[in-house]
Design goal:
This protein has 347 residues and is α/β, with parallel strands linked by helices. It has helices at residues 3-6, 18-21, 81-85, 93-97, 105-113, 135-139, 142-151, 169-176, 192-198, 205-217, 237-249, 266-277, 282-288, 297-313, and strands at 9-13, 23-31, 40-46, 50-52, 63-65, 68-69, 98-102, 123-125, 156-160, 181-186, 222-229, 255-259, 326-328, 345-346. Mean pLDDT is 87; it is low at 1-8 and 321-347. The structure holds iron/sulfur cluster (SF4). Iron/sulfur cluster binds at residues 71, 73-75, 78, 80, 129-130, 133, 161, 202. The site of iron/sulfur cluster has 11 residues, from loops.
Length: 347
């Protein structure tokens, strides 16, 4: 089905918002389709697309590309919520429904990668908000972004909860033939009830694991970021076992657990949700996160140990830190560009 046939849209330009959005003009659209009911898109021509991660960051990468801001996956715990406040947008429901789209992201990136000042550093995607959220089905920015990276043989990684990544399977395979590519899927738990309330806009965990299986079956090895492990709701031994088992069955090459963290912006929204859905847990959370955004070290260590033991039991290799798994281009002796799945080698 074509969007054009389904969509009735409204549009208006609001130059007054432009400075906040880092653009000269903002075009605001809504679409009268069930998939985008209640969602407003702010289309901008961004002035920059490669973002340097601040030196103090805990992240294991230096450069990111984020074609969207806000995320319709609407995870209650999303740490990126606070970034919406920089745009003068609401960090709660506004983060889930007011989506900024950098419609010129592919062209901008292609130009930037060609600059003599760019030295081909690793580019991470899906690190702020999900680049394969539902909006990507409409705006199709990722094929242009992946093509630009492929054409410059620029290493990159993608982290997502979106099943839409399978649309770009061929581009991922082509890229992996010329550079290092890492793909990780985020699945913190498999409990369907927990998913429906805490990740209401994201594909179901099993559908994400199906993505892992499909990628693996097509020669793209895929790790799972088991995040977040949610205290008292998703961290029972039986829940951890079921999740790690499902991840192993899906063919993931590694599993990296990460306990829930609650930074400002996310914390208020999550705690309001907790009070509504699990009021008896509010005091326990206040105690567990009394010292800040992160669960205590003892808790993080316990989860990591449990998950690693289960991973070993189910035959998965040890996780290699928090970086997405990388894929090395095929050895020269292998068939170049033969039809069918490309055989890739993990670093
Ligand atoms: S998918 Fe990722 S970016 Fe989107 S709401 Fe969930 S945690 Fe946030």
């Amino acid at each position: 089905m074509r969007w054009e046939n389904l969509t009735a849209e409204t549009r208006h330009d609001r130059p007054a918002d432009a400075a906040l959005f880092g653009a000269d003009t903002v075009t605001t659209r809504t679409f009268d389709t069930p998939e985008f009911a209640g969602i407003t898109f702010h289309e901008i021509h961004a002035r920059s697309i490669l973002n340097r991660v601040p030196g103090a960051s805990r992240m294991p990468f230096e450069w990111t590309v984020n074609p969207y801001r806000g995320c319709t996956h609407a995870c209650v715990y999303c740490f990126a919520r606070r970034t919406h406040s920089y745009l003068d947008l609401d960090t709660g429901i506004g983060f889930d429904t007011q989506i900024v789209v950098k419609v010129n992201a592919p062209e901008l990136l292609r130009r930037r990668l060609a600059s003599p000042r760019w030295h081909g550093e690793h580019v991470a995607m899906g690190t702020n908000v999900d680049c394969y959220q539902r909006a990507e089905g409409r705006y199709r920015l990722m094929p242009g972004i992946l093509s630009a990276l492929r054409d410059r043989a620029n290493p990159f990684s993608v982290l997502t909860k979106g099943t839409l990544i399978l649309r770009d399977l061929d581009l991922l395979r082509q890229s992996a033939e010329v550079t290092e590519v890492g793909v990780s899927v985020s699945v913190g738990f498999t409990d369907p009830e927990l998913w429906r309330t805490v990740e209401p806009g994201a594909p179901a965990p099993q559908r994400r694991l199906d993505v892992v299986r499909t990628l693996t079956d097509h020669g793209i090895e895929c790790g799972v970021l088991m995040a977040p492990v949610i205290p008292f709701l998703g961290d029972e031994p039986a829940q951890l076992r079921a999740t790690v088992r499902a991840i192993a069955v899906a063919g993931a090459t590694s599993v990296t657990p990460l306990a829930l963290h609650l930074r400002p912006g996310a914390r208020e929204w999550f705690m309001a949700w907790l009070g509504q859905h699990h009021p008896a847990l509010v005091r326990r959370y206040e105690r567990l996160y009394a010292d800040g955004a992160y669960a205590p070290k003892w808790y993080q260590r316990r989860i990591t140990r449990q998950v690693h033991e289960l991973a070993a039991e189910f035959g998965m290799g040890p996780a290699r830190g928090e970086t997405p798994r990388r894929i090395r281009r095929p050895a020269p002796a292998e068939e170049p560009a033969a039809p069918g799945p490309t055989q890739l080698t993990l670093l």
